[in-house]
Amino acid sequence: xxxxxxxxxxxxxxxxxxxxxxxxxxxxxxxxxxxxxxxxxxxxxxxxxxxxxxxxxxxxxxxxxxxxx
Length: 69
Fold this sequence. Notes:
Layout (H helix, E strand, L loop, with lengths): L1 H6 L5 E8 L7 E7 L5 E7 L8 E7 L8
Antiparallel strand pairs: 1-2, 2-3, 3-4
């Protein structure tokens, strides 16, 4: 997650939130916005507290696409 946080600005992303989320597990979370496209990225490090392997969950939100006439 530290590598992701430091690499995002080099790719045009602005990190707007970095820290623990509000879940019981206190998972590490990154929220970033792409400067040109205004696409939003949410990446969460899901701890493997229940005996499972830790995972990274990534969600992207983009603006509505409209075809230009």
